[in-house]
Fold this sequence. Notes:
20% strand, 171 residues, alpha+beta, two-stranded antiparallel sheet, 6 helices, five-stranded mixed β-sheet, globular
Amino acid sequence: AFEREKKLVDHIHSLGAIAKLHICGNTTPILNDMIKTGSNIIDVDHFKRVNDSYGHDIGDEVLKYLGAIFKRVESLYPKSFCARYGGEEFILTIQDTEKKDVIKIANRINKTVEQNPFKSSDGDIIISLTVSIGISFFHLENDTANNVFSFADKALYKAKEKRNSTCVYNR
Length: 171
C-alpha cells in the first residue's frame, strides 16, 4: 500500500524541490499511511531577509539548494518522503525509524545546512543559512496526519525561538 500511495504524490518530486504540497482533503489519507512514525517540519530561518536582500530568483535558488539537501536525506531511507510544504517550509517524514534516530537526522540536517553555505549559480553570492525543525510522532493508532503536522508545527515555533535548532513536541 505504501508504494501505491507514494506514487500518487511522486509528481511533487518531478516538479522540483520548490514544488508545494498542501495537506488537505484527498492527500491526508495518503500521508496518514506515509508518516506512521512521525514528521519533521523544516523552516528556513530568516528567509525573508534572503528575498529582500538578494531577490526572489536567488530565494528560489536557495529553496532548490535546500530541497536537494533534504532529498539526499530522503534517498537514504526507503520509506521516507520530502516535499516543500509552503513558503520556505518543507516536510520530511521517515517511516520505520526509531524516534531517537529521527531526532539525530534532524540535528544532522541543522549542522549540514549551517556548515554548507549556499553559493549562487554564478558564484557571486554566498549566503550562510540555518533551519529550524519541529518534530512530532504518532502516539496513538487513531492519530492522523493533521494531528501530527499540527504538533510538529507547534514544535517548530519553539525551535524558531532559538533558531537553528530542533524541537520535539511532547504529548
